[in-house]
Design brief:
two-stranded antiparallel ribbon, disordered N terminus, mainly alpha, 183 residues
Length: 183
């Protein structure tokens, strides 16, 4: 009877650990799928309305060469869709998340600078500025958009550094060996 009690307490202790690990894995899966779905949506919206997206890219006045404008407007949506699909499928999660961070940080800075310029020109309070940033959501309040981009960036960074690869087809591009020293 003591052996049964000991084995049941041991199994309940280990199941508690696997439950918390399972919850963590499910949260990561949820974050991955949410981030992937957002980028699939945003990319599809841009890809299905390329002329409108090109006009929005032009409004930022960052690229002045028509070839570069057309290249960005035609490739960026498909790149976002591709990264979103990789995240949803769990393939190359770290690479896809790294690329999203590399896209989100400069874009957030550009949106912030455009909002500052609009505030200077119009004299509006910063959080009252509203414009179509090109993300696919139409006109948005700038403070909301900056908060959203910050959250997306933090989720992406979390996926880069999260070491668990459960519920992924392939978390990273390269296989790592753990626990074995190299000689």
């Amino acid at each position: 009877m003591n052996a049964t009690t000991a084995s049941s307490s041991t199994s309940s202790g280990s199941s508690g650990t696997s439950t918390s690990s399972g919850t963590g894995s499910l949260l990561i899966l949820l974050a991955r799928c949410l981030l992937g779905a957002v980028f699939i949506y945003m990319g599809l919206h841009k890809a299905l309305h390329p002329v409108e997206f090109l006009k929005l890219v032009r409004q930022y006045e960052v690229l002045h060469t028509p070839v570069l404008l057309n290249m960005v407007a035609s490739t960026l949506p498909w790149f976002e869709i591709f990264c979103g699909l990789l995240l949803v499928l769990g393939v190359g999660v770290r690479g896809a998340a790294t690329i999203l961070v590399a896209m989100l940080i400069p874009f957030t800075i550009i949106v912030f600078l455009r909002a500052l310029a609009m505030r200077e020109a119009g004299g509006l309070p910063f959080c009252a500025i509203k414009f179509d940033c090109g993300c696919g959501a139409g006109e948005v309040l700038i403070c909301r958009k900056l908060a959203e981009n910050t959250l997306l960036t933090l989720l992406s960074i979390g996926l880069i550094f999260w070491l668990k690869d459960r519920l992924c087809l392939r978390h990273g591009v390269f296989r790592t060996t753990r626990g074995v020293g190299t000689e």
